[in-house]
Amino acid sequence: MTGFQIITIMGVIKLEPRCPQRIDGMAIDPEPNWKFDALLSELNSLETKLSSSTNVPAPFAKSRPRYFSNGKSSGKSCKPFIMRVFEDEIDDTDSEGEEDRSSVAATRFNCDAIYLSNDSDDESTFKDQSYLMDEVRIVEGALCELTHEHHLEDKEEIRNKISALETDLRSGSEKSTSALTQVEKYREARNEMDRKLDTQYQRKIAEALDNHLTAVQRDHELRSQIEERKIRSDAAYEEAKRREKALQEEKIRQEKSKAESEARLRAEEAKRAALEAERRAALEAERRAVKETAERQAIETSTRVAARAAQEEDAGRQMNANSAKKSQSASNVLWAAESALNLEQARIQRLKEVDEGKPGFEDLSSYEKLIGRLIRQISGSTEVVREKSREIIKIFNDPHCPQSVMVAAFAKLVVSRCTSPNTDAFACGHVIVLVTSQVPHAMDLLLAEFHRACIYTVPKHITYSELAFECEEAYYQALGYRVIDRKLESTKDYLTRLASYMELYGALIQTEVQGVQNTHGLKEGWAWIARFLNTLPANRYTAVALSAFLKTAGFALFRKYKSQFMKVLSNISNNFLQELKACEDPGLNATILEIQSYLEDKRFLKEPVGRALQSSLLSTVSIPEGQDPDYHRSSGRYY
What we know:
Protein name: mRNA export factor GLE1
Subcellular location: Nucleus, Nuclear pore complex
Organism: Quercus rubra (Northern red oak)
CATH superfamily of the domain at 337-605: GLE1-like
Region (Disordered): 287-328
Order of helices and strands: EEEEHHHEHHHHHHEHEEHHHHH
Main location: nucleus
């Protein structure tokens, strides 16, 4: 038999011979399921063919065919044989520790039939069949030996292939196990990712639902607010109608009271006219009596009059010269802009008219006391300021109270509050603006009181002249000094009061209330500082007035006029301060240092303390940082 090669097809092992399929016209068709009888018959047929073939070499030619017997059909008796096996060929575990290799007598048995198995691994079977070599020729023995060798080689190759297959199967099993593990991990990772995606999707759904509900709630709130606003607007409209009706009724009552007061004034004027007529008649009678007496004495004094005529003429010429000098000196002692003097005269004239009409009314001290108490209760709080303003306006609108007289009393009380300590100038400025917005003519009366109390609110200044003033006391009274117990107040007290007036005036011009117009605002403050620097000299009084004004109004003026205001400050630094230093007055040192520190520290960039009320009535403003690029020195004049 020849060797076989193993071919694996779709997992099935197929054995094929290594030799060609056909040799000399003889086909080789191995059948793995052959039986021994079939094998013997096949060998006999092969031997017959070889004997009859001429192509077989002579040494291998047979004289007669030999037929193999299966042992059953032969008449020979089967001889028993003895099989000897050494102990080292038995299992190694049974022979450890033994050094004796003596043979063991084997059991004697008969081979009635020969059983061949393709799967047997025991080579002793073929060794024990050596007796067949005695019955066959050398060729058959060689063929059998060659067949046996090929059979062993095929078995070894099959073992190797099976081992390789087992290794491949084992590695494949491990790979499949690893693949299954990876698939399981991937499945778990995928499940985890799906859970995360589900959680994220649910979170997004929840957020979207929350946003939707929030939007719905906001929409409902907006609708409710619109409804509330509509209700409030309707209520406000009804309230406005009611107030308008009340105002009309109030206006009618005021007109009636005004007519009654005018009637009383006319009656009083008639009484005054009658008294004036009686007084004039008495004066006329007295004049006639004096005239008659004078006529009697005229003859007596005619001679003396003629003698004194020359002397009186000389005295008249001298008096005219003195009056001319006094008028000229009066024009030299007054420092003020013509426009400011005209405004001052108009305002004071209006205040005089109100004061002249006051005696025609009954006692109004109760109203004045009430207004004075309200002014003293003013503090730096929005609620307090608005409440006091409403109460004062309510007093002005009282039909039993003359408005112009009460406005004049209000102006006088507000200005007189500067004499009290710890005056909140900014809160008073708010009250003044709120009151004058409802009663516009009250601003002129208030400014007239300012001009009476402090001439530097005009602004104007008076210098001393012996021709213009009878004495120094009259001069100081013209400046605004007070006489207390027949003595003039000290200059220190006067300057303190002067600074208070200017602080209140500066707080007034810079006050800004939302929704309310200040009729004497920053525009008037700019005009005041321009007139001040253009007309007034530099001395102790003007220095204190300027310092107090800048302290309260400088921040607002810089916020509005910026570079122009910086030019004004440059003029103050280069001109006004230099003139003050040239005065060489020791009393000016403190004021000069205060103005210098204000300019050098740029205090106009910082909001003054108390300017913003507690509820922030003033609008929020931003303060520019750094110096204005248009800032430069200038000695020009401002109008």
